[in-house]
Amino acid sequence: MQSPAEREILEVGSRLLTSADSSVHSPVRAIDKRALERASQDAELRTALLRFVDVAPACRSPADLAAHLIGFLGELHERPLPLDAAMRMGSSKAARAALGRAAAAGVRHVAHRFIVAEQPGDAEKVLRSLWSEGVTTSVDLLGEATLSSQEADRYAQRCLDTLDSLAGIYAALAPMPQLEADSIGPIPRANLSVKVSALTPLLRPDAPELGERDAMPRLRALLRRAKERDVHLHVDMESFDSREAVTELVLSLLGEDEFRDGPSAGLVLQAYLTDSPELCERIVAWAERSARAQPLVVRLVKGAYWDHEVVDARQHGWRSPVFEVKAECDRNFEALTVRLLKTRSHLRAAIASHNLRSVAHAIVANRALGGQPRDVEFQVLRGLGDELQRALVREGLRVRTYCPIGDLVAGMAYLVRRLLENTSNQSFLADQVRGRPLEELLAAP
Amino acid sequence: MTLGPFVNEPVLELRRGEVRDALSRGMAALERKLPLRVPAMIGERRIDGETLLSTDPGDREQVVAVATRATGQDARRAVEVVSAAAGAWASVAAEERALILLRSAAWMRERRHELAALCVRECGKPWAEADADVAEAIDFLEYYARGALALDRGASVLQVPGERNHMRYAARGVCAVIAPWNFPLAIPTGMLAAALATGNAGVLKPAEQSPACGAMVVEALRAGGVPPDAVALLPGAGDAGAALVRDPRVHTIAFTGSASVGAEIIAAAARVRGDQSHIKRVIAEMGGKNCVIVDSDADLDEAIPAIVRSAFVYAGQKCSAAARVLVHEGIADALLERVAGAVATLQIGQADVFGTDVGPLIDEEAQRRVLRYTKLAADEGVIVAAREPEVDGRGWFCPASVVTGLPADSAILRDEIFGPLLAIERVRDVEDALDRVEALPFALTGGLFCRNPQTVQSVAARSPVGNLYVNRHITGAMVGRQPFGGNRLSGSGAKAGGPDYLLQFVEGRVVTENTLRHGLVV
Hints:
The complex is a heterodimer.
Chain A: H1 4-21, H2 27-41, H3 43-55, H4 62-74, H5 81-89, H6 93-114, H7 124-132, E1 135-141, H8 149-171, H9 177-180, E2 191-194, H10 196-199, H11 208-229, E3 232-235, H12 243-254, E4 265-270, H13 276-289, E5 296-301, H14 306-316, H15 326-342, E6 347-352, H16 356-368, E7 377-381, H17 386-394, E8 398-405, H18 408-422, H19 428-433, H20 438-441
Parallel strand pairs in A: 1-2, 1-8, 2-3, 3-4, 4-5, 5-6, 6-7, 7-8
Helix pairs in contact in A: 1-16, 1-17, 3-4, 3-18, 4-5, 4-6, 8-11, 11-12, 13-15, 15-16
Chain B: H1 17-31, E1 36-38, E2 40-42, E3 45-47, E4 51-56, E5 59-68, H2 72-91, H3 94-110, H4 112-123, H5 127-152, E6 163-171, E7 174-178, H6 186-197, E8 201-205, H7 211-224, E9 231-233, H8 238-246, E10 252-256, H9 259-270, E11 281-285, E12 290-294, H10 300-312, E13 322-328, H11 332-343, H12 364-380, E14 382-387, E15 400-404, E16 421-427, H13 430-438, E17 442-443, E18 445-449, H14 453-462, E19 467-470, E20 487-488, E21 506-514, E22 516-517, E23 520-521
Parallel strand pairs in B: 1-5, 7-8, 7-10, 8-9, 10-11, 12-13, 12-18, 13-16, 15-16, 18-19
Antiparallel strand pairs in B: 2-3, 4-5, 6-21, 14-15, 17-20, 22-23
Helix pairs in contact in B: 1-4, 2-8, 3-5, 3-7, 4-5, 5-6, 10-11
């Protein structure tokens, strides 16, 4: 016997799924989908392809690229036919160059699905077209790892420039009322996500205060510019190693008098962390205490470093900081959704998930808690959540798409994480592709 | 008796605040006891005498331990006592000896915070390194306890009808352990545990810079149940060690330290003295001049932090530390610029401050040596990064430097400097890099950053080093996972923490029994 809420979740979820499916009309997408399906079923192939994607931008010539591809494919015990043909192509110099060029094109094709542009200026077209579809964005600047102060300064400067250009791009756009306010008040149109690991080379797991101290002046400068330009500034969360430093840094800076009345800013809560309920309580208590003019935005995610956290803990013999059972993580995601939505007047919840069940649950929970559709934000990833994005817009919901910008070399770590997620056996997308029945996809975790 | 499978002792999860607090409390508990008193421990006797001060490398005014400076006479007395006890210890069942080592491991585990604190104070090891030292000491006890049990079952040999063949391993007798200060708990524990597990009696001569850590090792073993007569402690300087090496009653010498001292020990041990009736065996772990090869397809985001960590953590005072980077000329400029930027962010400071990468050097002599090489680097090459210490002058601090453009015959490319000085060279390709690696007399550790599986295979096939690390830092070998030890002048070849190590501490004995009697197989 299903509860009324469960029935409603099933109903909302089915509608989203139908609507998402009917938006697939690109034949290229269909081919990509089949390729991803193939990769997620064959662990060896998946590893070979991800290793190739990872090294592709560092290769010095098409021939070098071909040599790497052949090297990875050579380690497979069983090769799909087209790849076997590719291997045989490696026999002559001209053929190797051709193979290399084809492979480079393949990597670019995949990359462009997830990365909107190499430079912020080139992203304008995509951002404008999304806005016209009723979707706003959070822009993320991909970059190489920050290993020195100069690199941290360069990243901060890129962020400052991007805050300016985003403000300019979005100021020129026509009003889109459903994206620009919720029950609490106005919401900035433009939104930039930043990474603390890029703002300091000193994020040390055993000395969080070192990174905090070093990143603080750079993040403060960004907050000032964001306030000046009325752009929302969101601080991303990364691996568990830096969680303490990032949390302390954001909460202490936003607690400064200077930032009480702006800018709009936020941080991330990762539901895969087993101690995320405690962190959530801390954030909620902070938000309730800090009478900010624009409430803190909390982006609720599952978390993108699951594989890293699990392997890291195993190698060290530590208990894993993340849920290792997917259903436990999904249940926690729903509990945190409810906790955040209940704190509505003090903080804004942004639900960032491609799991249809989690999204439908948030829609229903928001309604049950007396929220308007515009009172909860849904976030999807460019290239991964495009279909869900359109379905959510059709439901009249507020959608923000996370849009990475950067060159291929810099974008590879992001790309590999996305591909890993997309081809994981546990992913909702993989389930969908495999055609699991709707009731199962939408069942309570 | 079977024990569960070996697992590495987890290092502390220092990313959690409460774990860091526990270490700080361990330090406070230790500091209340300073200076520690470290006598020579021979049987039940604790011998005081002339003293030797062990001071905090980060603060020369802080005395960590007042140790007895054991004499040659003390060394001979120690050998006499353990020699007399060796037979009894060898006849203790292997199971019982294994259990004793496990109890010693438990003793260390219970005190791990305070033991780590002692490493920090006495040897200037930053917290993470000090904690890893304790964990590795525990690993050696657990690993060799299991290995000795397996060895006790003997080796399988061919059997044919009419004869019964049996091969077993017996303890060699007395083992002198001469240990370094840079892994002041792990290395002496490893060498002693190997000797004791296989039924040898042992005498530990810790480095003169780390007598208190050495005393903890002997305390742990005795607390676990090793009879006091079977394991002795001789804190002191080189003369006590030299007396041990010469003593005709010593059967095995396990040494970790510099190549020059190692060569002297091997020469001295080769001489058969007095009524000595055996050949001494020397297990020597010596220096390195470790190279990291960076191919053109390397991911610099990963390679640079790993190189910086390998070269500079604990001020480069590990025999496994990176000393040279051989980088493909196609990415050399980018690598140089980014390494220089990363080195400028190194935290040079007191070892007890969380986040410190480069602590003080061990002593004044080390500081003089490193400063001399740093000056030579500036004369012969181009210094591309020099991170100066920003701490007061009471510790043996020195800058962390990166040099490039050195002439091919520079001493900096050849000598083991044992300090935070890294040389970077451009190479045409990986083959060129391997030629340079092969030209070195050392072959301890090596690194390779490369994403082409075929190149990885060919480097692994050609590299002479004892431990090659691909796409990661080149320090931090784990017991059971990376059996550790060098080739050429880097060592006598035994791999500590590996399956072959214990064989160095035993002698094989084969018994063949004729079971054929008048055509009857009995």
